[in-house]
Design goal:
A hairpin with a 4-residue loop joins β8 (198-202) and β9 (207-215). With 242 residues, the protein is α+β, with helices and mostly antiparallel strands. The strands form two sheets. It has a seven-stranded mixed sheet, with helices on both faces. It has a five-stranded antiparallel sheet with strand order 11-10-9-8-12, with no helix packed on it. The protein has helices spanning 22-31, 76-94, 148-152, 158-179, 181-191; strands spanning 12-19, 38-45, 63-70, 100-103, 107-110, 113-122, 127-134, 198-202, 207-215, 221-224, 230-233, 237-240. α2 (76-94) crosses α4 (158-179).
């Protein structure tokens, strides 16, 4: 894969035919002194993973990429929201008129079905890897997922999608670094699914059910239960339509 015309000049790119994981390659490069910003992309992954170490199906034709970039330790989660907005923007370019929504904390949905996931991992004191997988040509079976090809009849070119993603990420990162998390939070909520609806959030400690009210200023989910109590949730698997 080569970058398409329009690749942002300020951002590096390394592409591989196969990697264990683009996030793991970002970690190796960070240990070797790479500072970024740098995109790492693979045509295929042999050990792709999502949140909580779950396997990420990584067949050729989809997009598997990681942005190695600077972010303070307190900002790791915020970088995931920046990525979410960028991913939603890119998918919407290929699906005019379709419903593209964001699911807290790290998924993009097409008509309610998962089309992309994001995994942010800290690589060093100064660096994070923002891993992004988008289902362009196909999606895993047995889960409520969807690909762009399933909707449009053809898969977009991964290189073109990556270039669009890199440009959107660069623009939203600039907003974030200049103006803080407030504009990112507002843009994410504008694209969010489930706000104001009943959801179920399963944390490591216990499940919660209630209304998805809002995001707090740090991006945590605010859930109001049937007794009117508001719970601040920083990590959970979220289920809509409860």
């Amino acid at each position: 894969m080569t970058s398409s015309p329009g690749w942002p000049e300020a951002v590096g790119l390394r592409h591989y035919e196969i990697l264990d994981s683009t996030n793991e390659e970002a970690r190796r490069l960070a240990r070797a002194g790479e500072q970024g910003p740098l995109w790492i992309v693979a045509a295929q992954q042999s050990a792709g993973r999502g949140r909580h170490g779950r396997a990420w199906v990584s067949e050729r034709g989809n997009l598997f990429a990681t942005l190695l970039t600077e972010a303070a330790p307190s900002q790791s989660a915020q970088a995931g929201f920046v990525a979410g907005i960028s991913v939603a923007d890119v998918i919407a370019e290929y699906l005019p008129g379709k419903s593209v929504k964001l699911k807290w904390p790290n998924d993009a949905l097409i008509s309610g079905r998962k089309a992309a996931g994001i995994l942010v991992e800290r690589l060093s004191e100064r660096l994070v890897g923002v891993g992004i997988g988008i289902d362009l040509a196909h999606c895993p079976g047995g889960v409520d997922a969807i690909s762009i090809a399933e909707v449009t009849g053809s898969a977009p070119n991964p290189g073109e999608v990556l270039t669009a993603l890199a440009r959107h990420m660069l623009a939203w990162m600039a907003v974030w670094r200049r103006d803080g998390f407030g504009p990112i939070r507002d843009a994410w909520i504008a694209r969010a699914g489930g706000v104001g609806d009943m959801i179920r959030a399963v944390t490591a400690q216990r499940p919660y059910e209630g209304i998805f009210e809002d995001l707090d200023p740090d991006g945590a989910l605010l859930l109001r239960d049937e007794n009117g109590r508001t719970h601040r949730i920083t990590a959970a698997d979220v289920f809509y339509g409860c």
